[in-house]
User: Which sequence fits this backbone?
């Protein structure tokens, strides 16, 4: 019996843990530290139709309870991913979610169509990056645009679509319902919160992009709340993300309704955090004689409001 198995509806993973997109590259560096097939899945760096250089530096800034990043979706583009990165990762024996980004629905569709015949767990549509100068975040805040984009991608790609939504809005429920109605098989909640840091000595914004995405422990309460709200509204699985660094964090997300979990900023401080979480959760499940599936949404049981 595998107590840690995670059910995404369209797939069953051996455990719920995966890296958050943009925090793991394509896994090459981490593969020197641990076997990638230790994880339930790997989420890749964002893939856009053409290569992107990303934002000007500085791109990272520490905050008291996390970090700001303004990488700007730097990547080698669709051609580079298909030629160099994806074949290598497919050889590691781990399920793969390819993160897809673009400036228009047609750009998302172009990447998705090119990946349609690949051996993948699915695609994660990034509708929520807060640190690019064009596209991305505008899709995630508008339910009509979410519906149109997910529908467009679904027309050209039969792979399961996981929609990553932005937390930078008043209510996550409407975009979540729109993604589900358009055919999304799961949601990823949440991406980073938009934030700013200022260098008081230089009297200028610290990041070259001015603003960036806030991640880490500071955003965990926001992420938990949005997972909680979405779980009560949708019938598709949720992948929880935002400030997970220990087993207790993971348990909170599962209890709030997440079926699987992504870990981002914590891996910068501790590159071995993912395999440690895999082992730690497995031990906790044995000690407490339960399973991941039994924990998902347990905090909602008996609550009507």
Assistant:
């Amino acid at each position: 019996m595998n107590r840690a198995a995670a059910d995404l509806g369209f797939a069953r993973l051996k455990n719920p843990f995966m890296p958050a997109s943009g925090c793991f590259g394509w896994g090459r560096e981490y593969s020197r530290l641990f076997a990638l097939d230790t994880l339930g899945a790997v989420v890749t760096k964002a893939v856009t139709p053409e290569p992107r250089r990303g934002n000007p530096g500085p791109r990272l800034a520490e905050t008291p309870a996390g970090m700001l990043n303004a990488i700007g979706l730097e990547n080698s583009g669709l051609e580079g991913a298909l030629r160099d990165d994806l074949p290598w990762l497919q050889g590691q024996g781990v399920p793969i979610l390819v993160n897809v980004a673009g400036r228009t629905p047609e750009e998302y569709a172009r990447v998705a169509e090119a990946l349609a015949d690949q051996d993948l767990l699915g695609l994660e549509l990034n509708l929520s990056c807060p640190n690019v100068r064009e596209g991305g975040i505008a899709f995630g805040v508008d339910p009509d645009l979410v519906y149109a984009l997910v529908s467009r991608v679904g027309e050209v790609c039969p792979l399961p679509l996981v929609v990553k939504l932005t937390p930078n809005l008043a209510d996550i429920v409407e975009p979540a319902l729109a993604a589900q109605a358009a055919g999304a098989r799961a949601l990823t909640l949440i991406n980073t919160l938009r934030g700013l840091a200022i260098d008081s000595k230089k009297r200028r914004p610290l990041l070259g992009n001015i603003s960036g995405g806030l991640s880490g422990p500071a955003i965990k309460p926001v992420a938990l709340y949005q997972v909680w709200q979405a779980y009560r509204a949708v019938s598709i699985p949720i992948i929880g993300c935002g400030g997970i660094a220990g087993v207790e964090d993971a348990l909170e997300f599962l209890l709030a309704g997440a079926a699987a979990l992504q870990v981002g900023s914590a891996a910068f401080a501790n590159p071995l955090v993912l395999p440690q979480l895999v082992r730690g959760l497995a031990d906790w499940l044995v000690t407490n004689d339960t399973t991941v599936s039994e924990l998902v949404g347990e905090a909602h049981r008996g609550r009507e409001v």
